[in-house]
Structures are given as C-alpha cells and as structure tokens.
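Rotation project, supervised by the postdoc (A.L.). Task for the rotation student: set up a whole-complex structure prediction and record inputs and outputs verbatim in this book. Inputs entered:
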Amino acid sequence: MAGKPRLHYFNGRGRMESIRWLLAAAGVEFEEKFLESAEDLDKLKSDGSLMFQQVPMVEIDGMKLVQTTAILNYIANKYNLYGKDIKERALIDMYIEGMADLREMIILLPIAPPDQKDAKVALIKERATNRYFPAFEKVLKSHGQDYLVGNRLSRADIHLVELLYEVEELDPSLTANFPLLKALKTRISNLPAVKKFLQPGSQKKPPVNAKMLEEARRIFRF
Amino acid sequence: MAGKPILHYYNGRGRMESTWWLLAAAGVEFEEKFLESADLDKLRNDGSLMFQQVPMVEIDGMKLVQTRAILNYIANKYNLYGKDIKEKALIDMYTEGMADLNEMIIILAIIPPEQQDAKLALIKERTKNRYFLAFENISESHGQDYLAGNRLSHADIHLVELLYEVEGIDPNLIASFPLLKALQTRISNLPAVKKFLQPGSQRKPPEDTKSIEVVKRIFKF
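Outputs recorded:
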C-alpha cells in the first residue's frame, strides 16, 4: 500500500540532505520531486501540502511531513535507528542535537554576507575541533564500542558521518586529531547501503555551488 | 533511587522555560540550581556539559544537555509523546513549528534595539498567518480537545506555553483563534498546570532589561 517516500525540495543539499542520508543508510528507496521555480513552491503552499508553508516536505506512509526533525525522527523510529529504550534515545538526541548545531552553521555558510564569511568559517572550524569533535571522540573512547550508542548502529552514527564528510570538504585537516571519529567514518562508509550512497550516481547531492545558490535564491525568493 | 531532576540554568526563562512547563504539567517535582558566571565555568571544567552549554538537567543518572533531548526524554518518560510513531510524527511536526516561533521570541530579547521593531513585526505576522493558523486548522479538523491522538501530549503543553508568551507580546494576536483560546483555558485548568500558573510556583517572569543584563554577564556576550 505504501509507495516509496517522496521528497519535496530543491535539487541541492540544504535541509533535506540529512533525510537523504538516513533513508539511504536504512536501505529505503525514495523518490524526489525537485522544486525548480518559485511557482512550484507556491503551488505546494496553496494546495495545503505544507503545514508551515515550508519545505522540506516528505510524503511517507500517508502523511505529508514537514520539519526536518519530525521527518528524521519518524524515519529513525520506523527503521529502528533510534536506540532500544528512552535512555538510549536521550543520549542519541543529545548527540544529534549537538551535531545539528554545527550543521546549521555549515548550511547557512553559503548565504552569509561576503564580509562575514571568513569569520563564520573560522567559527565552524573552532567549534568543530574544540567543542563537537572532542565530545564525540570522548564518547567513543569512553565505551570503546563501534557505534556511538548502545553498541549498535543508530541515526547518531549516520548523522555524525555525514557531518564528518561535510566538515572535511571545508578543510580535510579538521578530523586529523580524532582517530576514533575517523575509524567510525570508515566503518559506516563501508556498510553496504552507505557505500552505495557514496558512489557517483546516487541521490547524494554535491556541495553547493554558485549555480545552485542562484537557483535556491530564485525558488525561495531570498 | 532517582531523586528529583535538577535543572541547571540561570534564573530566567530562556531555553529552560519549556522544560519547566513540561515537568510541571507532568506533575514532576524538580530542583533548580541557578548559575552565576563562576558556576558555568565550574560545570564546564568538571565535564558536566557535553557541549559546554546549558540548559543541563540531571535526571535518572544522566546529565542531559540540548533542550530537545531533555524535552523528548521527559515526554517519553511521562507518556506525553503519543501512542505510536505516526502520532509521534505529528507531535514532532507541531512542536518543531512551535520551536521555530519560540526561537524568534527568545532572540528578540537580545538583538540590537534598532532591529527590534522589524523582528517584532515579523513575529506577529508569522504568529497570525503561519503558526496559530496552522494549529487552529488542526484543532478544527478533528474537533478534539487535544492536538494529537485525542489525549494530552507535550504538543498541547508547548502550545499553551507559546500562547501565554505571545499574549505577553500582544494580547490581540490570539483574538481570531477561538479553538486555541479554548485549548489554552482547558490546559490551564489541569490541576498540575493550574498550580504552575499560580504566583509562587517555579515559573519565571518575562525577561526585562535587568534580567537580560544578568544573562549577558553569565554567558559573556
């Protein structure tokens, strides 16, 4: 009865990329409907598909879900990537919320005013290496297990590895002093579903470029 | 074995307000440790804060940071998070929208004075045309007493908290949303919430210039 999930967004990473990663890692095939113009977005708004007139929106199991966190939580719950009890869930939430704070800085970087860009990049690098990466390295060191929580794969591992790739795109040296994070990245990247997602031709989106940014500005009118 | 939760924050609303509301609505007694600058440094140095930030809540042997992690744990523990993953999805969708509006309100207190009018106008516009409209529509669509699953969830608690905050900004904003007003009344009359709304409870007053100065001093910005 349920078809594949359908993702509504523009053809770029933005706030939909974490959802693509999580679905892919869970081995779930999905379709994408790319917004190509401001009118496409207007149409979704006017037909009542977007609860707060915003995308991302994912059609899944008869729902039209908006809000990235809601979408990710549903997928994680459905595919058992959210821990085995409420305490594991609490740890996963704590970790992924920290990741989301760092990720937010990266998402917003392309649209920062040119005179603020350098400072923002410096802040991202500082926070990654002094706050977030040490925290996650410490978690892995504390239990010595292969995954962040509960000795099994959870969304926390997927989101972290996505973040590691993105930060390395900014500056490959940033992960240099975090051997356990690097080992996690390798391990997760070798999971069959993730490996497939990392190959060319998958639904993983490339880093933002000037053309994509123009397109986003046009569609989202900013 | 588990004592009362201990909430570590400064003595004001900020990002801990939703946690107070939720614990109070769930009927859970809690303690508070109010921070001064030195206290924040101490918490950071002794490794209590995973990302060197507060809010932090000591609960059931954990030192939880990150507001969503704290709220989700409390909601899960006290059965305020729906009965299945689809109800959870709706609750999450609603509370995330509320969080977006709440974020705008939190930031309002600390942005430069010259930006405040524009930001305030945006908050009012979004409240009326986006958020309150969406929640009124939901209530209308099922005609039930609660937002999701025909029973109390943390979505109802957060919404009522938000309604009070917005009323504090402009009492007229809620005027055209009768179902939201009814929900506000209904939830406010629940015994645990009623108690929290009385003077002398652990509920914090709105920020004023003095409390903002305190915030800036403690968090050094």
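Student's summary: Residues 114-143 of chain A form the longest helix (30 residues).
Supervisor addendum: The mean pLDDT of chain A is 96.
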